[in-house]
Specification:
By secondary structure, the protein is of the alpha/beta class. It has a single domain (2-154, 178-206, 250-267), classed as 3-Layer(aba) Sandwich (Rossmann fold), CATH 3.40.50. Helix content is 40%, strand content 16%. The strands form 4 sheets. The chain has a 6-stranded parallel sheet, sandwiched between helices. It has a two-stranded parallel sheet with strand order 6-9. The mean pLDDT is 97.
Length: 281
């Protein structure tokens, strides 16, 4: 199969590329090779390669920057997805689109399933929901949350660095979600893409925790004293974050479960693997 991957150099793309390359003909593009917001450029790239599957992972994910760079956020996350969908139609390719927990407002007292009504409160969430709406009905949407892993910049790497620099850290204990590791997420995207499974799926690792609890888990995995992590409330952050965060980001992987597709493992397992790999360097 010919597979076209956007955002190939990101933390998810860096996992997708070798995974697909084992059995398929893969072309990856990123900002340094193809500007996905340039309609002619992305259409030429897609039609020139002629993929049967497009994994659209490229996005503007700087949540706070999206609040001030509104046009750029919608250009990258919404309009560029329109161009990708157009290219897919022209060559008859299926699209797997990576979306986010930020499409929800975070006020629901229980986990969000795929049939809950989105209500984003941030520009990032609005622009990613805009991308979802650009896709054809036969596409696959993978909403995920709190992505981290071996590649790219993420919270695990930040915490391991800060563990060596500071005696004490504070993390919010009133925002909860499912930490998701890029390597595991890539395996689910691979399966849904190759097996041509359409529809909306919440695709996260399991294990709902607060950022405070996640930070403690990272410290424990790295061999540091987790009691060096102290809790704080979101309202007490100084300075406050420009973009509102969903208090409840827990995504119920209901569509996978009801489809008989095994959900991803508990996040603590890949966390141990990634921390061990990072500390071995």
């Amino acid at each position: 199969m010919k597979v076209f991957v956007t955002g190939c150099n990101g933390q998810l793309g860096s996992e997708l590329m070798p995974l697909f390359s084992q059995r398929h003909d893969v072309l990856g593009v990123d900002i340094d090779t193809v500007d996905i917001t340039d309609r002619d450029a992305i259409l030429q790239a897609i039609t020139g390669f002629g993929p049967e599957l497009i994994v659209h992972g490229a996005a503007m994910t700087a949540v706070d920057a999206c609040e001030t760079e509104v046009d750029t956020a919608f250009k990258v996350n919404s309009l560029a997805t329109r161009f990708v969908a157009d290219g897919a139609r022209r060559v008859g390719a299926r699209v797997v689109y990576v979306s986010t927990d930020y499409v929800f407002d975070g006020t629901k007292p229980s986990p969000y399933n795929e049939w809950d009504q989105p209500n984003p409160r941030s520009v990032y969430g609005l622009s990613k929901l805009g991308g979802e709406r650009e896709l054809d009905p036969g596409s696959t949407i993978c909403r995920t949350s709190w992505v981290c892993g071996y590649h790219g910049n993420n919270m695990v790497k930040t915490l391991l660095r800060l563990a060596e620099e500071r005696d004490e850290l504070t993390f919010v204990d009133d925002q909860i979600g499912h930490p998701t590791f890029a390597g595991d997420l890539a395996t689910m995207i691979y399966r849904l893409g190759v097996e041509r499974v359409p529809g909306l799926f919440h695709t996260t690792n399991q294990g709902a925790v607060s950022w405070f609890e996640f930070a403690r888990a990272v410290f424990e995995a790295g061999g540091y004293d987790p009691d060096r992590i102290k809790p704080i409330k979101t309202v007490d952050l100084d300075p406050p974050r420009p973009a509102p965060r969903p208090a409840n980001s827990v995504l119920d992987n209901m569509a996978l479960r009801l489809s008989g597709i095994a959900v991803l493992r508990d996040f603590r397992e890949p966390l141990q693997e990634v921390v061990k790999r990072l500390q071995a360097e």
